[in-house]
Amino acid sequence: MSNSIDEKLQQAFGCFNARDLAGTERLCGEILRGAPHNPDALHLLGVVRLVAGNAGEAASLISRALETKPQDAAMLENLGVAHLAARDHAVAETVFRKALKLGASHGLLYMRLGLALEQQGRLPEAEEALRTAVAKAPDDPDVHNNLGNALAGQGRHEEALACYRKVLALRPRHVDAHYNIGTLFKHLGRNDEAVSAYQSALALAPDYADCHNNLGTVYDQMGRLEEAIACYRKVFALDPNHVHAHNNLGNALQAQGRLNEAIECYERALSIRPDFADALINLGNVRARQGLFGDAQARYEKVLVLDHRSVDAHRNLGALLKMQGRLEEAIIHYRMALALEPGRARICNDLGNACREHGDFDEAAACYRKAIAMDPQQAHAHYNLAETLKLHGRFDEAIAAYERALALKPDYFQALGGLAHLRQHVCDWQGIEVLWDRLRRDAFGKTNAGVSPFSLLSMPSSAEEHLACATAWASQHLAPLIASRAGLRFEFSARPASGKLRVGYLSWDFHRHATSYLIAELFELHDRARFEIFAYSCGPDDGSAIRARIKSASDCFVDVAHESFIAAAQRIYGDGVDILVDLKGYTQGARTQIIALRPAPIQVNWLGYPGTMGTDCIDYIIADPFIIPEGMERCYAEKVVRLPGCYQINDRRREVSERTPTREECGLPAQGFVFCCFNQTYKILPEMFALWMRVMQAVPESVLWLLETNQWVAGNLRRAAAAKGIAPERLVFAPRKPQAEHLARYRVVDLAIDTLPYASHTTASDALWMGCPLVTCVGETFASRVAGSILTSAGLTQLVTNSLGQYERLILELATHRDALRDFQRKLRENRDSCELFDTPRFVSNLERSYEEMFDAYTRAARIRT
Question: What span, in angstroms and rounded, lies between the C-alpha atoms of 334 and 323?
């Protein structure tokens, strides 16, 4: 019997060596039927099962063999291999170490121990084992290859690359070494070299599905999406159930905007592996882009049920919540992601963005600084830090941060626009024309440029460029909210049974702000027999008298500052608002996302933003015949509604201090002509300032009184004046004062002079209200024509010029011929209360008539549709 077993064992080993696994299994089975505990047959059958891919059964068989031969190192090693294949890495390590204690010490055993340690994340220990393997088997390419993997996992890329190259020196056709080199280069962003390495692997093994997949991901990173897609489709020909390739194909299709096809790919991956976190997250990302926020959130939350420590699920859920304006919830998830992966700079940056939008500027700045400490090359963190420092008024530090962002990413047009605009704020004009030229040449109109439309208003630019910039901004920032409308199911009916139109005003400015100082009387004068007035405040409650005045004059005043965009839109829709008027546009504090959700059938852009919004979310822009002349409608995404007078409303009840400050109190000389421009200093451009200096040269002892908006302006402008031959002390800077005291300062001004291309708005009507004439020069853009409209409505068209030459001559004439100036001053005093500009009741009547015409047009169109 014993001889028969030995013979069959010899035959079985012969079959195994000949790769006849079926014959091996048959012979082992025959032995075990007669000797069920034969260790050699159990061991060999276990190895057969292992080769066939059944690691669990292999481990069971070899373990039975070891019951008879517990000191057999070879059996222990193969048991370890079985546990390694079954991903029982800790058990495999224990078994390998036991084999080593029994005296086995060959290189392959140390290599396998290294693999078990590597899979447990114990890379330094794995490296030690693999280096021993290399010492014992220096000519075995596999040990060098696995040592390379352990080194790559520790970020020691050059050492890893040297190992892989050693493999190829030993065996040039080693497919995995070529593959690993490709993966290393891919990680390093050396995409061309990665492509070459993967292609070398595929030349040796054309059916290597993982290699086709990884090559596709490199093409994806390079923007070569069609080639990436071709790679993924090759994978499916080899392995139709390759979940990573289905997921990656979805990503490529998503990048092309083919969202429905991308969804099919992610769903196919999930049908193969329902718990595949990457596919769940990517599917959530597509749903978010489609505006299906609830569906997206459910996908991320499912990942967190599967693994509550998923950093990417927390981060993506944070981004989704932030997109909806649910900032407190977003911050929670960003903090969770950061707690799980403290060294990830991008999450720190994301958390900073959410904190900044929430109004916590100190925390935001701290987040950006942490992100920069983690990754000094992250341009976005430098840009976001600049934006936050700007809000803090720390302009010098903000400028340095913008410049750092641009040094890291020269085509970072969002940072370029921010830098140019902030340099204008501090009147640091060195090289400013170069910045403007780069923006005009390279950025305007590009959907991914991210240049703020508001910053463009004060730069030399055209109305067409304003439209292109606003359209690109809206496309980039509002698209997901626009897409989410369908899920809100807002349906609009005809005029309410009461017969009154419900008009809602949405603004951040219902506090001490120029817009509130203009608009307060509107709320008091609206005809309550025809209108119900709703005010939706998304800004701070400063407890001011102007806020209280607007609140008391509204039929319904709602603070939505802490509501999500969707919640605020649902509130507006629930209130039955017929016409929603956005008073912010793209200025600070805007919540244009609420408008994007279209909670009202008619939406209007008025007063707060002097330009087009570039989106069909807004139906109308309120202007006047001067602001938008006939033929310029092409430069506006909205339908143009022209009021008969000026588009700007004024408050006849504005508070003015009865006390007039002395010239000495204002820092002005006792004698001499006083020019003033109390516009924000970002509106002052070099060409206009040079013109002002020529005027001052021609008007001896004159001074120019400017607003001191920040601590750098006075020094920069006085140096610029000195360079033009004007004594620096002839520039006087007015500190900020309460509105009533500020207005009283106009009583000591002789003539106000305007800026271009961003003209005076509230400052123009303030000057005229106080009896101070203003000279303006108009351009073609909305922002450049406001003061001209105001002067026309005040009956002072003579003070409106159409070129800088005319503007300069008129200022000189008025400054040197005081009789003409006094005539304008007298005309202002006599006509102020009767002129069209300050006839607020008539303005309100005209505005209300326009609202009714808008609604009538809407109802006519609705009847046609039905």
Answer: 13
